[in-house]
Specification:
With about 150 residues, this protein is α/β, with parallel strands linked by helices. Helix content is about 35%, strand content about 20%. It has one domain: Rossmann fold (3-Layer(aba) Sandwich). The chain has a five-stranded parallel sheet with strand order 2-1-3-4-5, with helices on one face. The radius of gyration is 14 Å and the shape is globular. The structure holds 1,3,4-trihydroxy-5-OXO-cyclohexanecarboxylic acid. Pathway: Metabolic intermediate biosynthesis; chorismate biosynthesis; chorismate from D-erythrose 4-phosphate and phosphoenolpyruvate: step 3/7.
Length: about 150
């Protein structure tokens, strides 16, 4: 199967960005592990990061021309603001898991609300980079066999 991982704004800075919340692992390292784990399981995973809301929306929309079976997304700050990105995911109707590196329920009050969680297959928050790997395992379990 084909899986798409989408990272929202400022996640390109992982490694140096607020390590107390986000750890020291780079986005490249997270993506490399996910690609390798998917490949080992006989699937194909690609990763995409953008800082712009419309760029993320266009990436989601363009999945209609591909055969993407599952999306893992960390909408980053757009989690708390973007009805438009939520609508894009609802429009393409591809199942997705929402991932956050930090525990969004243990920080500022404005991070507690997500525009994505109620339409996600599931949500993982606060487990760092491992959250993406757990999301991949859950996605593959739903998609098996390759
Ligand atoms: C985040 C949490 C968001 O509140 C924040 O804006 C981010 C990253 C996380 O992965 O913990 O940019 O989605």
């Amino acid at each position: 199967a084909k899986l798409l991982v989408i990272h929202g704004p400022n996640l390109n800075l992982l490694g140096t960005r607020e390590p107390k919340h986000y750890g020291s692992t780079t986005l490249e390292a997270i993506n490399a592990r996910l690609e390798q784990q998917a490949l080992q399981a006989g699937h194909c995973l690609t990763c995409f990061q953008a800082n712009g809301e419309h760029v993320l929306i266009e990436r989601v929309q363009s999945t209609v021309h591909e055969d993407i079976h599952f999306i893992i997304i960390n909408p980053a700050a757009f989690t708390h603001t973007s009805i438009a990105l939520r609508d894009a995911l609802a429009a393409v109707a591809i199942p997705f898991i929402e991932v956050h590196l930090s525990n969004i329920h243990g920080r500022e009050a404005f991070r507690r609300h997500s525009y994505f969680s109620d339409i996600a297959e599931g949500v993982i928050s606060g487990l760092g980079p491992m959250g993406y790997e757990l999301a991949l395992q859950a996605a593959l379990a739903r998609l098996l066999p390759p």
